[in-house]
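Predict the holo structure. Ligand: 4'-phosphopantetheine.
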Amino acid sequence: MLKAIYPGSFDPVTYGHLDMIGRSAKMVDELIVGVLNNKAKSPLFSVKERVRMLEEVTKDLPNVKVLPFEGLLVDFARETGADMVIRGLRAITDFEYELQMAQTNHKLDPSVETVFLTTNLKYSYLSSTIVKEVAAFGGDISQFVPAYISECVEEKIKQKRRV
Ligand code: PNS
């Protein structure tokens, strides 16, 4: 049984991530979407919210499971018994960081292999940061994220403005 982790921050999940999830899920028996709870960062959504949002938009993919994780990715891979980590490469600008991360993970645990998929050209410009920026200035994000995520982002931005 082949098990992979697709890790990320997913703050929020975009169509680019969903394309990667759908394609990765076809390559393995089980795909774990690992949602990083990074206490050093202050994301727009809590890890619980990000997990729930991902569960909602991946509910039609039976071999996809969404789990939060903290700490090192290699430890999460060991805990879940994953055979590999899948990451997407959008453009050359992603390459340096991704290579550094894959090589660090391989040094920390040589049994953890990283597999790269090139992202769909349709989404090569897309990132969660861009989505948040557009939404923060009142722009339409419906072409970047599913309708449910768009509602969550708009609601969260309204909430933040109230406090
Ligand atoms: O969506 P992102 O923010 O690009 O995802 C980055 C992520 C979560 C894959 C990466 O930050 C990560 O694996 N963090 C866990 C900490 C870790 O293992 N660091 C060592 C590898 S550099």
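The beta strands are 3-8, 30-36, 64-69, 84-89, 113-118. The chain has six helices and five strands.
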